[in-house]
Amino acid sequence: MSEPDLGRAFREDVTRNAQELVVRLSTLLRTAYVHGPNNDAWHPIAQALQQRVARLHAAEGQVVVGLRHGRLAVNEHAVRPSFSEHGAHQSLAEALHARGIGRVSFLAEPAAQELIGLAYTLAEVEEATADDVPALNARLHARGLRRVTLSPLQADDAGPLGGLADRHARGLHLYYKGQHAARGVMEGLRDGRSVGFRHIKRFAQEAVELLTLHRGLGLALPFLRSAGPYLESHAVNVALYAIVVGERIGLDRQRLAELAMAAMVRDVGKSTLPPELLDKPGDLTASEWAHFKQFPHVAVPRLLRFRGFGESTLRQTLVAFEHQFRGANDRTLMTREFSLFTRITQIAGDYDAMTSPRPYRPSALTPSDALRMLIRDRHRTAADPVLLKAFVHAMGIYPVGSVVVLDTRELALVVEPPFSDDALTRPRVRLLAAPDGSPYPHSAALDLRAVDDLGRHPRSIAVALDPAPFGLNVPRLLLLRDGAARA
Amino acid sequence: MAENPNPLLEQVRETLVTFVRALRDRRTYPAQNPVVLRRRAELLAHLTALLGRLGELPLVVSADTLSWTGEAVYRSDDPRDSLAFTLYRQGVRELTFQRGVTEAEVAALVEALAAPLAGDEADDDLITLLWSADLRHIRYLAIEDATDGAAWARDPVNATRQLVDALPEVPAPASYQAAIRSLGTTYLAPVAEPPGLAMTAEDHAAHEQLAIEEGARDVTRDALDVILQVLESTTRPEAAQELTRVVVNIVEATLDARAFERTARLIAHLADLSGRDGAAAGALRTAREHFSDRAFMKRVVQRHNDALSDLTAHGGDSAVASLSARPLQEIVRHAGRATAPVWLELGCELQDKRLRRALCDAVAELSRGEVLTLATVSRAAKWHVSRNVAYVLGQTRDPAAMKLLRGLIEHPHEKVRIEALRAAAHVAPENAPDLVARAAVDRDRTVRLLALDLAFAAPSAQLVEALVVRVRTAQDVDSAERRATAITLGRIAGDAVTHLFRDMVVRRSLFGRAKIDDARVAGVAGLVAIDSPQAEEILAQVHRDDAAFGPVIQEARRAVARTKEPPTP
Predict the structure, then answer these.
(1) Cα→Cα distances A246→A94, A198, A320, A397, B203, Å
(2) pLDDT band at residue B531 under the 50/70/90 scheme
(3) pLDDT of A189 over the 50 cut
(4) CA B114/CA B86 separation, integer angstroms
(5) Which pLDDT score is estimated for B472?
(6) What residues have CB less than 8 Å from A269, skipping those under 6 apart?
(7) In contact, A459 and A451? CB cutoff 8 Å
(8) Rounded Cα distance, B232 and B235, in Å
(9) Measured between alpha carbons, how far is B16 from B10 in angstroms, rounded to an integer?
C-alpha cells in the first residue's frame, strides 16, 4: 500500500471510530435512564465504548467528544451521522447542550465502571448551564472518575440554534418569527400585494434544524398558539408537526423545509374569508358553506400571482388547493392521489385543529384524545394509514404537553416523545406533583422506559387528564423553565 | 522604512484573491471545466493551509469589504464583481471557514455564490443554497430583517411569560391536588402498549416508497390540473385571464428550466383538455394560442440551443446526443398546422443537425395533406429555409408537393436544388421527368449527378436530348461525370444513341491512331450501358483494332454494373 493510501486508510479508520464512539456514548447515556447500575445490559455497551476510546487514543493520543458550532466532533473530526445514526447523534448533542457541556475529554483509557459512572452522573442532572460544569466535574471526581473531565459549553460551540442558555429562547423566538412570517404572507396575499416568502423560508429552515436537534422543545412550541390569531398559529403548528412526520418517514432536510413552507401557506385561501364566517360559533348555512369551500380556489391564483413557478411553489399550491377535500366523498372530485405533502399536512392540520380552541368548540381536545380521535376517524377523514402511523410514532401515544397521572399517582407532564418505537406509552415526562399534590419544584425529566434492577418499570402512565378543568396552565409548565416552580 | 507586513494577514488576503478568482472562473465556465476545477483545488489548498494555522477564519462582511480581526482583507468598489457585495446583498454578515473544510464544501460554496439568483423571493436565494448544502465547516450568519423591532424578537422569554400569565390558571398545589384527587382512590394500572401500532419492516419500506413515489410525481402537471379545476369554477373573466397567464407561465418556466419533456407533456395535456367542453375551454384555447405564437416557438429553439451549448461544453458530441429530439417534435406537433412555416424558419437556427432534422420531420407530419401552406416560406430569402422546405416536402410524400418542388429546382442555391431533387425522388420521380431533365443540365455538378441517379425512374425525351448535348459538347464536365452521363444515356436511350457513342469511340486523329481520351472512355461506357448486340459488336471491333481498349472496356463494364446496384439509402 502506498503512503497516501495508508494515510487515507488511517483517516478512514479514525473517522469510523469517531462515528462509532459517538453512537456508543449516546447509547450509554440513554441506558442510564433505563437500567440500574448493576444491570447486565451495561457491560456490552460500556465495553464497546471503551474499545472505541482505546483505538482513538492509540491513533491520536487523545479523545475529546464535543460540540463544535452545534455539531458533534471527536478530536478534530466533525462527525457526520448516517441516517440510521441520526437519532443517536441528536440525543447526544441534546444531552450535552442541555447540561451546558461543550466537551467530554477522556484523558486516558477509562475503565468500564468509569463510563457507567459518567452516564449516571449526567442522568442525574437534567438541565444545567455552562456555569454548572465545574460542579459536575466535582461529582465525577466524587464518584472516583479521574480519567473523564467535562468542559463548559462555549458560546461558539452552540451552533445556529444556540446552546442551552438560549436554546429555549431561540425556540420561542422561532415560533414568534413563524407567526410573523405567516401573518405577512396571509395579509399580503389577501390584499393582493406582492409578498416576500423569505421569512417563511427562513422559518422553515430553522424549524427543521430545531426539530431534528430538540424535538421536545419543537413539539412544545405549538402551545404558544394564543400568541396570535388562529390561522397564523395554525400555520406554524402544522409546519412543526409536519416536519416531525416528514423526518420520521425519511425526507431529507431540503424536502422537510419545503414541506414546512407548504404547511405555512396551505391556509392562505382561508385568510380571505370574513372573520364572521371563519369564526362562526354555530353550524354554517348551505350558502356559507358554499362560500367557505371556495377558499382553495382563491388561494391558487393568489399563490401563483407574484411568484416564480419552481417546483417548490407548485407543491405549495397543490397543498393549498388539495387540503379542502376531506373525506371519501370529496376525494372523488380528484382524479389522482393527493400529494405527499397534502397527506402529511392533513394529519398535522387535523391534529392541531383538534387541540386548538375554536369558537364552535371552545374547549380543545387534549393531545392524547386528539390522537385517539385521529386514529378512530381515519376512514372518515381518509387519512393515509402509513403517515398516520408515522405521526403516532413521532408524537407518542401521549404527545408532548399531555398531562398524565402515573401509576404511582404522581402528576406529570410529557416533555418529549418516546425514544423508541416499541415504547409508545413511555415518553419522557417531568414530574409535577407527588401523590398528595405537593409540587416537585425542580423535577428532572424522566424517561419512562427506565427499569429498576428487577427489570420493572418504576413509573408508567396510568391515565391522561384534561388540564383545563383543574386550571393547569400547560403552556407555562411546558414553555417556561421556571414554569413548574411558579405554578 | 516600510513596515513588515503581517504574514498571516497576507495569507488571508491571498486566500481571498484565490476565492474571488475561483468565483469569477465559475461564472465564466461550466462547473466541470478544468479551469474551474483547478481554481477550486487552489482555493481548497489555500484554505487548508490557512486553517491549519488558524483553526478558523471568521470574515465580517460589509457592502464592499471583508474583514478579519478588524483588518480589511478584501475590498472591491465594483458591486458587479465584488465577493463582499455578493454576500452582503443576500444578507450574509459573517462567513466563517473552519478547519476540516472539504472539497465538496468549497465546491458547494462557489456554486452557491456563482448561481444567478433571481430577485423573486420564491426562488432559491444564497442562504437557501448554503443551507441546502448543509456545510459542516463553513458557517454563515445572516441578518434577520423586519423583525428586530418586535418585543418578542428582543426578549422571547418575557413575551412568552406575558402570554402565559394571561391564561386562566389555578395555582399549584390546588390545581395539582384537584387533578390527582379527580381520579379517586382506585388502583391506577399502567396503560398497555396499544396493539397494532408497532413499526414493522413493511412500514419502513412503505416510508421509503412514499419518498420515491413523491420524487417521481410530476408536480407541474398536477399543479396544472389544479389550476384547470380552479379555472373551471371561475366565473370572473379577469380571474380566468389571470389563471391562463399562470398556466402559460408554468409552461414557460419548464422551458426556461430546459425541462423539454415536461414542456411537451404539459402542452399535450393542455391540447387534450382544450378540446373538451367546459367553462375553462375558452381560457385554455387562449393558453394554447400562446404556444402557437412565434415568440414562444423562438424560445423553444433558443432553449434547445442553450442546452446544446451547455452539453457541448460539458461533454462534447456524446453529451449532445443525450438531448432527446422527441419533446421538440411533440411541441411542434401540438403547435398546430398553421405554425409549420414559422417552425421551418426558426428551425434553421437550431445548431444541431439531428434536432433540425427531427423538427423538419415533425413539420412534415404536420403539413401532410396541406403542403401548399408552405408556398410562401418556400420562397424565403434565406436559402437554408428553402432547403428545409424542400426536405419537408419530400418527407410528406404528398404528390401536391411537386408543384412547390418545381419552383425550388430553380432556386439560385445549389443545396436547395439538390434537396428539391431528392424530395422529388421521395414524392414521385415518375411524375417529375421535366424536373430531372432540368436538373441534368444544372450548372452544379452535384445536382447533375443526382439527376443522373433519378433519370432511370423518370426518363424522357427531353432528358435524352439534354444528356446527348452534355456527352458530346459540354465543356464543364470532367471525365467521371462524362462517363456517368454516357452510362445513364446508354441505359435510358438504348440503341437510339449507339451511333453517337460509336462516333465518339472510332474517330481518329489526323495522325492515325487516336489516344484514349475522356470522350472515347465515355463512348465505350455508353456502348457497354446500351447492352445490345449492335453495341457489343462495335466494342469487339474497337478492341480488335486496338488492344489498349481492353482495360477501358473492362472498367466500363464494372462501372455499368455499379449503376445497376440498388441505390445507397
Answers:
(1) 20, 21, 18, 18, 14
(2) confident
(3) yes
(4) 9
(5) 81
(6) A294, A295, A296, A297, A298, A299, A300, A302, A320, A324
(7) no
(8) 8
(9) 10
Q: Which three cell numbers stand for residue B335?
A: 403547435
Helix segments in B321-413, DSSP class H: 326-335, 340-347, 353-367, 375-378, 383-396, 401-408
Residue A357 has pLDDT above 70, yes or no: yes
Q: Give the three cell numbers for residue A310.
A: 419552481
Q: Cβ distance A265 to A323 under 8 Å?
A: no
Cell of B5: 507586513
DSSP per position, B12-31: HHHHHHHHHHHHHHHHHS-T
Rounded distance between C-alpha atoms, residue B219 and residue B266, angstroms: 11
Across A125-145, average pLDDT? 83
Angstroms from A1 CA to nearest CA on chain B:
24
CA angle A474–A475–A478, rounded 5-degree value: 80
State the pTM of this model: 0.71
pLDDT at A219 over 80: yes
Interface contact B190-A472, CB threshold 8 A = no
User: DSSP letter at B155?
Assistant: -
Closest CA to A26 of A99, A92, A122: A92
Which letter, b or e, does each residue of B286-318 get, where b requires 16 or more Cβ atoms within 10 Å of its Cβ?
A: bbbebbeeeebbebbbebbeebbeebbeeeeee
Residue of B460, B374, B441, B444 whose CA lies nearest to B412: B444
DSSP state of B3: P
Quote the pLDDT of residue B48: 92
Which residue has cell 371556495? A294
- Assess contact for A88 and A27: CB atoms under 8 A: yes
Q: How confident is the model at residue A164 (pLDDT cuts 50, 70, 90)?
A: very low
Cα torsion through B439, B443, B447, B448, rounded to 10: 70
Burial class for A300, CB neighbours closer than 10 Å (0-12, 13-18, 19+):
buried
- Full DSSP string of B240-307: HHHHHHHHHHHHHHHHHTT-HHHHHHHHHHHHHHHTS-STTHHHHHHHHHHTTSHHHHHHHHHHHHHH
At residue B15, the pLDDT reads 94
Residue A327's CB: how many other CB atoms inside 10 A?
12
| CA max distance for chain B | 144
Sheet with strand A461-465: strands edge to edge: A445-447, A428-433, A411-416, A403-406, A461-465
Regarding predicted confidence, which is higher, A178 or B279? Answer: A178
Residues of A in contact with B168 (CB under 8 A): 471, 473
In angstroms, the CA A278 to CA B522 distance is 97
If you average pLDDT over residues A146-168, what whole number do you get? 65
The residue among B497, B470, B494, B492 whose CA lies nearest residue B481 is: B470
Query: Which residues of chain B does A196 touch, with a Cβ-Cβ cutoff of 8 Å?
Result: 121
pLDDT tens by residue, A58-79: 888 888 898 876 668 888 777 7
Residue A424 has its nearest CB partner, among B136, B193, B222, at B193
Report residue A142's pLDDT band, with 50, 70 and 90 as the boundaries: confident
Mutate to test the interface with A, among B57, B94, B131 (most CBs of A within 10 A): B131
Distance in Å, alpha carbon of B202 to nearest chain A alpha carbon: 10
Note the pLDDT of residue A410: 93
Q: Which DSSP letter does residue B186 get?
A: S
Cβ burial of A190 (10 Å; 0-12, 13-18, 19+) is middle
Which residue type occupies A132? D
Backbone φ and ψ for B123, nearest 5 degrees, come out as -80, 170
- Residue A43, number of CB atoms within 10 A of its CB: 11
pLDDT at residue A360, as a whole number: 80
Q: Would the CB atoms of B246 and A76 count as touching at under 8 Å? A: no
For residues A177 and B146, the answer to whether their CB atoms sit within 8 Å is no
What is the distance between the alpha carbons of residues A260 and A311, in angstroms, rounded to a whole number?
Answer: 14
